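Tip: read the tokens left to right.
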């Protein structure tokens, strides 16, 4: 990928160029230590940092650099090559994370007043765009997946999607999450067939699956029939935080409108350091990705096999090995083993702390499990340290790995009283809040929420603006708080904004 090699070299060469920068950014590509020493100020040593090297490479859209928002040169060529490599019709480089790609995808397909059929376990960024785009959502509740005592969001099935599209024929698009935060993949090929039969555009939030194309390309939504796919490169590949991709995979999406939407949700001052990081990552993956990923999954499989002798904790498996796609999805879902789910009933936070004490920081924890994210840059030494730390955890009873997946009964669905935007805007004009009031969460049962409340990570709402608050969801949130989770989206730590009666 010759075009991709240029930007990082150009950035490295900036410091040596004699051109004086009478343009943004304000640091003028000078490190703080350099400035303080030149100015004769006394605390230059305090500002000594390798970070100054990044400032020296930070640049805006000036000649000879291409413009990310309107690429005509090397960035355009790199995006074209990226699309060909992933199997998309066109790809967009994002430096605002998958959030900007999700918002752009929805905006490119839906207009204010439209309906959208979306997974209830969607990320908060989806809900924010649905709210501010003034859309009416109808939900697809993923299967309730239990592994021993631990519960996860499972897959969306094709049969469920068809039932809901028959109920809501006016939905403009379908949006699902695959893989989930815990690594559960839905059968995107089957979902695409249903969505397209009913003339809907399928959007897949594949933020946690940018690596799939290099190890099991048939599992990536890009190649499985989705129309728009969003991937967080930084989550699973060697790129800096905020780097992501948006792929247009079919002609069902208007290309010009998508370009406009991407520009709308992209900073007009994108970081070219981030762009260079993304390009270096793609260059590395094009040259070495398949070999590196095969080696990584071999290390990962060896780790899973080694952990079979653990008894204090268990891993959610099995490893997928060489099983065919058809066999993988025999139950409508499969799991990406790079999301290492450590089962530990009733002591997930305790096990996470034990790992932290062993100098291992994991991605997330809940009452019954700990989630560790692995990537191709994880070393043998890293897996060995994780195994030894898990082996040192004391026994506390048997750990079941029995798996069950059931559809969520309609009676358990949240009651959506009004579209999220309608409830949200009952708050008033931002100065007066005459249509809403803040109440104690414990006393909010039966009230209609104006807030969207979620636990982060992973950022999946438990209460959505416009829904009636049930005792069940309050109990669940209180249980999460007691276990150490942090709730976001509420008015204060223990109060929620609801519509006035």
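Filled-in amino acids:
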């Amino acid at each position: 990928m010759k075009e991709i090699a240029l930007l990082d070299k150009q950035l490295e060469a900036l410091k040596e160029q004699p051109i004086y920068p009478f343009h943004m950014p304000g640091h003028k590509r000078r490190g703080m230590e350099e400035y303080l020493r030149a100015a004769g100020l006394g605390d230059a040593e305090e500002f000594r940092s390798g970070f100054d090297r990044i400032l020296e490479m930070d640049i805006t859209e000036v000649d000879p650099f291409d413009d990310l928002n309107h690429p005509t040169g090397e960035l355009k060529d790199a995006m074209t090559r990226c699309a060909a490599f992933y199997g998309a019709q066109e790809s967009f480089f994002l430096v605002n994370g998958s959030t900007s790609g999700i918002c752009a995808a929805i905006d490119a397909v839906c207009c204010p007043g439209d309906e959208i059929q979306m997974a209830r376990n969607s990320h908060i960024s989806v809900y924010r765009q649905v709210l501010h785009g003034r859309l009416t959502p109808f939900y697809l509740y993923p299967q309730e997946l239990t592994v021993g005592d631990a519960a996860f969001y499972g897959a969306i099935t094709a049969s469920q999607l068809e039932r809901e599209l028959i109920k809501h024929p006016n939905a403009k698009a379908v949006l699902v999450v695959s893989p989930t935060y815990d690594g559960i993949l839905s059968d995107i090929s089957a979902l695409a067939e249903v969505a397209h039969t009913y003339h809907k555009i399928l959007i897949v939030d594949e933020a946690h699956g940018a690596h799939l194309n290099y190890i099991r390309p048939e599992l990536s939504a890009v190649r499985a029939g989705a129309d728009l796919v969003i991937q967080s490169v930084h989550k699973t590949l060697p790129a800096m935080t905020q780097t992501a991709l948006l792929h247009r995979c079919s002609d069902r999406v208007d290309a010009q409108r998508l370009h406009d939407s991407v520009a709308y949700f992209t900073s007009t001052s994108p970081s070219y350091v981030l762009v260079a990081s993304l390009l270096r990552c793609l260059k590395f993956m094009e040259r070495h990705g398949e070999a590196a990923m095969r080696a990584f999954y071999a290390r990962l499989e060896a780790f899973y096999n080694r952990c079979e002798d653990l008894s204090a904790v268990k891993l959610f498996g099995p490893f997928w090995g060489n099983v065919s796609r058809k066999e993988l999805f025999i139950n409508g879902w499969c799991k990406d083993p790079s999301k290492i789910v450590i089962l530990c009933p009733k002591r997930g936070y305790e096990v996470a702390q034990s790992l932290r004490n062993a100098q291992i920081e994991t991605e997330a924890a809940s009452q019954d499990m700990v989630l560790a994210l692995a990537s191709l840059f994880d070393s043998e030494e890293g897996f060995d340290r994780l195994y030894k730390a898990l082996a040192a955890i004391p026994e506390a009873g048997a750990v079941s790995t029995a798996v069950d997946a059931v559809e969520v009964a309609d009676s358990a669905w949240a009651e959506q009283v009004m579209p999220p935007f309608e409830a949200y805007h009952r708050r008033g004009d931002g100065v007066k809040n005459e249509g809403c009031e803040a109440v104690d969460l414990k006393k909010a049962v039966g009230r209609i929420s104006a807030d969207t409340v979620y636990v982060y990570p992973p950022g999946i709402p438990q209460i959505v603006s416009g829904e009636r608050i049930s005792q069940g969801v309050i109990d669940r949130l209180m249980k999460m708080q007691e276990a150490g989770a942090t709730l976001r989206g509420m008015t204060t730590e223990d109060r929620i904004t609801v519509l006035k009666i």
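Residues 1-5 have pLDDT under 50 and may be disordered. The radius of gyration is 24 Å.
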